[in-house]
Amino acid sequence: MVKILYTVFGVMFFFSNTLVAETIGIYTHRQPFLLEPILEAYTEKTGIGFQTVYAPQGLATRIETEGENTKADLVLTVDISRIKELADTDLLAPFQSDIIRDNVPSHLRDSNDKWTALSLRARIIAVSKERVGKDAITNIEELALPKWKGRVCSRRGSHVYNRAVLASLIAHNGVEEAKKWALGFVDNLARRPQGNDRAQAKAIFTGQCDVALMNTYYFGKMKFSEDHPEQREWADSMEIAFINQEGRGQHMNISAAGILEGSKKKQLAREFLEWLTSKEAQLIYTEVNFEYPVNPDSEYSKEVASWGSFKMDDLPMNVIAEQSPMAQRIINETGW
Prior knowledge:
The protein has helices at residues 32-46, 59-66, 80-88, 98-103, 160-173, 175-187, 197-206, 216-223, 230-236, 266-276, 279-288, 302-306, 317-334; strands at 2-8, 11-17, 23-28, 49-54, 74-77, 92-93, 116-128, 152-153, 211-215, 238-241, 252-260, 292-293. It is built from 13 helices and twelve strands. Helix 1 links the parallel strand 3 (23-28) and strand 4 (49-54). Helix 5 (160-173) crosses helix 13 (317-334), helix 6 crosses helix 13 and helix 7 (197-206) crosses helix 9. Strands 1, 2, 3, 4, 5, 6, 7, 8, 9, 10, 11 and 12 form a twelve-stranded mixed β-sheet that branches. The chain is of the alpha+beta class. The N and C termini lie far apart (44 Å). It folds into two domains: 2-120 and 253-306, D-Maltodextrin-Binding Protein, domain 2, CATH 3.40.190; 121-250 and 313-334, Periplasmic binding protein-like II (D-Maltodextrin-Binding Protein, domain 2, 3-Layer(aba) Sandwich), CATH 3.40.190.
């Protein structure tokens, strides 16, 4: 398989070409290194190739502008808000698949069959192994307590991962309690919000802070990093603390996908989407990307399983998307 990476007008294009009779077009927010192993596996299995456009921003506007002239068949996102935005603006077609309904629990897919989750990530609290320990925090609400003042690191609150966390707090605790939490959380920050999740791990390693919010798959990627061996030290300096285990369970976020209304290959797209929710594909998500499967019949990889078992919050993803605008308002008001 020949792979060529282009950058055009700030948008990254990733094409997978092989001797195939059919191709599926994908627009995605997912980084190429996370998506590539899955596409390669499907091409090897079926002979179907992919033309993939990586566009971190402006995807909804692009799809709406292209309409029936789009070359894409599927869209893959890294959060619930973006996929729901596409569904709410009628840019996604119902997939109407009993296979997907059987493979994916109802709280992880759209009731109108316009999108489905493909993988799960726990947004855990990463803690310093030396200075804190994973038993020091049991609930995310505790990060707003004065005992953590000057000890917390975070990326920007407006990032979709953190906005979803706050949206879940609104759904569970109400707007006023969520705002109080955000104020306390911001007051406890050791530095201004910055960087990605890896940057928070580095800050724990260097002693800038003791705890941080992080997606679990970053921990796996750092632990086995070959290109950046220093990240292995970052991962080794921290532990994963699963939260709210005596109550609602650990907050989860998702990667998700839907079929575009303008697709000319809806059947091919649906078959690929069905495969993505199968145990075969779900194993790739957990073994290669260190994510959790959405299919309850799928197994965890050895590494992911070693992080420990935990109870997941089963709050419907639609609810998180609905509360995201209020979450962003609180983020703006509190300076997160």
